[in-house]
What we know:
The termini are far apart. Helix 9 (371-380) runs antiparallel to helix 10 (403-418). The chain has a 6-stranded antiparallel beta sheet with strand order 1-2-5-4-3-6. The chain is built from 10 helices and 19 strands. By secondary structure, the chain is an alpha+beta fold. Strand 3 and strand 4 (44-54) form a beta hairpin. The chain is elongated, with a radius of gyration of 36 Å. 34% of the residues are buried.
Amino acid sequence: ADGRRVMRWRERGDGLEGVLGRTPWYAESGGQVSDRGFLAAGDARGELIAVFKEDDAIVHRLRMVTGERAALLAGSAAGALTAVVDTNARRPTERHHTATHLLHAALRTVLGDHVHQAGSLVSPERLRFDYSHFEAPGPEQLERIEQRVNTWVLADREVHTEVMPIDEARAKGAMALFGEKYGAEVRMVTVDGVDEACIEPSRELCGGTHVRRTGEIGAFTLVGETSIASGVRRVEALCGAEALAHLEQRDALLQAAAHALQTSPEQVPAQIDKLKAEIVALKKSIAESAKQGLEGEFAQLAQSAVAGAHGRWIVAELASGADANAARDAADRLRSTLGSGAALLAIAGDGKLTFLAAVTDDLVAAKRLRADELVRAVAKVTGGSGGGKPHLALAGGKDAGKLADALAEARRLLGEALGG
Length: 420
């Protein structure tokens, strides 16, 4: 747009914030971000940082890129300013905005008429749409929503606008957008429907920028859906070049997965299921092997138990590397092997230190020893803590360097309680 003038302005750093007599740039509103571009006069050029509404004015925030602010204002006084809209940002924004209208209509068709907009973001890079709904849509519903929008895109239907009294727009079924204030006259954006696909026209009150026909959207893909508040959900999508870039990236990931699995992309899900089954079988085999090793180790420990005046006792660090749950089950069985006695076992590995105490029921009943008190006292030596039941208890240690001291403390306590 040539021949622009700055009607009034104020300083902002080396740039300015000004109001033009007439502007080609869209001011941030209704969820759509502001346009990008620049204002130039000769060699002086100001980059558009933001366009926003302030009372009844549209304010343009400019940062000087070349030349001086004074030269730009001199060009304004001479009516020689050129305002340039960055179409590389405007066109994808238009695609995302029109697609937002189609998405809104698709959501209402698939999920129900109770769906209403609860917020939005329209930018060159993506669209985000918040809507009222009581549960997460299923995969089949999301697929139908995406297909419905793409059907609209491929049908290449006309998008047209009309300014009319607000009562007339409402009578025609136009939907008002969340958080917007409307005057006596409004702008209604209509996207023609697709009769053969049973898609009715979309009519919304909107002042934003849009494509001329739905085919300009090019492509549409959903990339996310989540809950953001009670009864409010958020869906995100990409259009045009941004959608194609996303799909190409996703295809590249699939190709990489297929290469790693030494199969075709079509066979990736089946190969993953096969590997998952193999992993389950291997884990089961490893657990069984560890169980057998643990049982053998516990049998040896039982044979080496110290015979005290009040029962047999064991203090040892497990060598089999079993997890705490398996060791706890084995320690519970060890109690019957001891007859009358107790055991304090340490498990160190994977950066963790765990202590396990087991005490036979007769010693607990006689109030001679409790597993929870024993394991707590031993773990304390390493800066840890824990507890459990009087006959079986577990505690976590912290300083593995003090393991020997903790085991020495366990021998002292069991020696005092049971003799030896």
